[in-house]
ECF-type sigma factor negative effector
Amino acid sequence: MSMKEWMNLDIDELELVEVSEVEKQRVKQHVLKKRRQAPIWRRLAAVAIIMVGATTFTGFAFPSVASQIPFMDNVIDYFQDGDRSYKDFDIFSTNVGLTETSNGVTVMIDDAIYDGTNVIVSFAFETEHDFGQDVSISAPHWFSVAGEIGAGGSMQITKISETSYVGLARVTPFFKDEQYPETVNVTWKPKVFYSTTEDLKVKGDWSFAFSLNRLTGNKQLINQTVQHKDISFTLQSIEFTDISTIISYEQLVSDELLEKWDGVTPLFYITDDLGHMYVNGLSGPSTSVNSQKTLNGSTTFDAIQEGASQLIIQPVEMASLWNGKGHADIKLDPIIIDLKK
């Protein structure tokens, strides 16, 4: 339709179409996204650092600067897997837009999400150094969350040009009494970038800090227990957000079983009644305060596909000796969850 046709359009003749609440929310989030920026902590302190160390360090605390770098926007596109993984990340994420340069490496944080359990951050970096195909970051390389008592997670880094790389980090912080806050304060201070194939290490001074609000989710309490003679597994809850599904669990293991094995970890096989596979033999981060006897953890996967009415969660316990010295699988009864409409 041409601009002239738009200007002469009679809105009284338009046929209205029903739109679901989900689609309304997605449109709303998409419109508001460009105006929603992550709060930057200690901005005055950051400015002071820039002024003092201008010869070796450059920091940009404003998203407009980051957006001028061509590969900075929509970093998540490099990590899309088919139609499902992170498909709504760009709609519901917060634009962080922080950039810092040190020793020939410019590091940029693009977007981030806090879904109530996990913090997911997309980032990129551009370098004057020849790192080769594979780059890693020396510890401490994790994104840290204020108030956490521990954390687990993963990080992917992919080369996209001779000088540019993109990354995706997923961090699951653990808090005392498992009380997840409504807002998390996130910091990241990578120290060394190094090549896994070349003899090259680059030290620098990069430091980021930002805040994320929790995505609105719908938590469903389950508290359903399945047992083996040596294992009691309780699915405590399941939470649905716009981009993910999160199950939380507690597991008790007998002293007798732990005398034979160093640890017992639940692996999950998760499907719905329509046959969609969400998790295929994977686990998630967990914590224990009593040498693996009690385990508290969570696993995150894609949002439930439209039309599904049941979720089938099959735990398979992997009893193992550390350092790959042996393992055994213990299959528990499946847990079936009726999904609320």
